[in-house]
Design goal:
This protein has 451 residues and is α/β, with parallel strands linked by helices. It has two domains: 110 residues, Urease, subunit C, domain 1, CATH 2.30.40; 290 residues, Metal-dependent hydrolases (TIM Barrel, Alpha-Beta Barrel). 35% of the residues lie in helices and 21% in strands. Helix 2 packs across helix 15 and helix 11 packs across helix 12. It is globular.
Amino acid sequence: MTKTLIKGGTIISMDRKTGDFAKGDVLVNGTDIEKIGKSIRSPGATAIDASGMIVMPGFVNAHIHTWQTGIRGIAGNWSIPEYLGAMHAQMAPRYTANDTYLGNLVGALNQINLGATTIFDWCHNNATPAHSDAAIDGLRESGIRALFGHGSPKPDAKKGQTPFTHIPHPRSELVRLRNGALSDDDGLIILAMAALGVDFSIWDVVEHDFRLAKELGLIISTHVWGAPSRLNPDGYKKLAKLKLLDRRHNLVHGNYLSDSELKLVLDSGASVTVTPEVEIQMGHGIPLIGRVRALGAKPSLGIDVECNISGDMFTVMRMALQPQRLLDNQATFKKTRAPVSSLSISAREALEWATIEPARAMGLDRKIGSLKPGKQADIIMINGRDLNLFPVHNPVESVVFHANGGNVDTVMIAGKIQKRGGKLRYRGLADKMDRLERSGRRIIKDVKLAS
């Protein structure tokens, strides 16, 4: 196997046993990390000079609707009702399979460019099997690692049609993908379910979908609102009673869940993904960061929709950390009438929310999310000599508070270099971007957009 030796970098491993190194080396053998240490000799290995670089695990983006890449910059003033009305009722039905392919390809390449080596692609605009296949093709062509969350469209029902809330997840499609394109659970692209869940489907559909996920051994992720208007206010209690609520479940948002319900979900081993910037804008409610932590768990972070925000996980970390610090600081001041003596959350914990915690939520923490011998080599290098970072005194704080996607110099996924010297290795990007732009203009044409 080909060996690569990353030499002389500042290593943030995100693994307690491995630890961090002010200056150290990482030896990659094929797809895996073989050794991490202060000084490693490996004659014959291809050397990468990492001096001045921060070497760390790639970001794991736990929630993104990659198919929407071609319609960026239209939803910066949208509330959640405006988003649902314009996106799912008007624009989503216009998508061809090729539109989905282009969005997933360019969106995944952008994630790699910004330092994310893994995404949970929550693909809920699969009008036909061809749309699903095209989405998977786009992911695979990009070189990214992904959970492909197979979802279902959510158009407004026409007269005489069954509303999407009453339609079970299509078993035949999951079986087709499980036995075909996504049969390899050790591959870069793995199948998951992006289901309607307790808030957005009737109970018979909820039970059907969770049983199907258990039967097929799939992660089942759902959007949860938690407001009084939800379709199944006692849905999680019923799922727990049926032993259908466990670590395979990934709850996204859930801002209005009661404390008891949130505890029930977390106690089952399920994960909670927060998309703070979108939630703050669109009216989802206060992100669950503080409430999840208060129950002894840790959240995972995701982007959500690039139609209104950047796909940059650096920004998402700050949008998760600093508002929660504000809430915690204010709570302390309300009690003591004095400023806090120490902050409630460290920068390192915020970095966990974007690396090892989303890997755990996606069932991939044995493979990725930290740098450790035996794990796969999903590694990024951040240029600490860039003007906005230099000098680097505390590498974790530099990453969390100062860095951005433009500082990502090198990206390696399963031992393969996808970006080097600040440039993606993908060829033909200009053509794909031109095609994506034409796709997006056609999709948004004549749609009334909030200004």
